[in-house]
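Problem: given the chain below (305 residues), write out its structure.
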Amino acid sequence: MAVPPCSDVTVVFARGSDQKLAAGTGHGSMAQAYFDHVKTRLTGYSINEYELGAQDHGGYRYRAVGIAAILDLYRSNIIGIMMSLIRRISGQDASSPPSGSDADLLGINGLGASEYRDSVIEGIGELTVFLEDRGTECPDEIFLVGGFSQGAQVIRRSLFLLGKGKRDRIAHVALFSDPTLYLPEGESPGSIASCEQGIGGPLSPWRRGTVRCSTSNGILNIDGLTFLRIGPHTPYVPSDIESRVGSWCEGTDGVCTGSVLDLILGIHFDVDTRRFHVPIHSVYSGKYFDEAAREAVARVVEAAQ
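Solution.
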């Protein structure tokens, strides 16, 4: 595949678990939606678009492997699974804490957990190599990066592996429903009360969406699921870029709120596909992409001045 010529801006997007790339050289629907929002607002600039997984970079290629098989294979016992999850997280099942080879609390290592981790690692590798190479080939380009769900996890973690010089080239980072979201203001009763009353210390600069003040961690930061997380969850992003990061979380999306109750209440069964899905996890492109694009474009204009 030919390398696109240098442009004013390169926009990169990482799709979520189980989402597909379009056939040929096209982009998947969510990535294309984000690209379109940016292009609509960023007039007068030449734009290069790249979706993670479209090519191999440095031996890495993001597959966006999902763990939806858990719900499909266990759907006959979904209540039992949820109760097991609640007991482990609440400490009622502390007699068998997760560790080593039996780290997953639902026995899901054979159902895609290890492949999920590999997928995240592949995405991190591809993104960092792509940005390093593109930055060298096109020294005047500005970068915009975004990701949804697993893709947000990939983008966030990659920021720590890029040198500060490359991070300085990133005008804006848009994360949507990050399963490794971290909001320190949701950690204690005092900070939660201050958040709810709009007083006290500042909120996290990356806080976006309708996420509740009581939210502190995404689902992959809770005890029992951290083996699906790559690297530590604090700090959330490098300090030199945190003012250019937005992390959108819908208030009842258990993926980013880390609430087991949100996950349980959000699961629906589609009678046509005979699969479980979480409708609230799909609102981001229609509800927040335009807001994120406005932020991103403002940052590009600021960086170009």
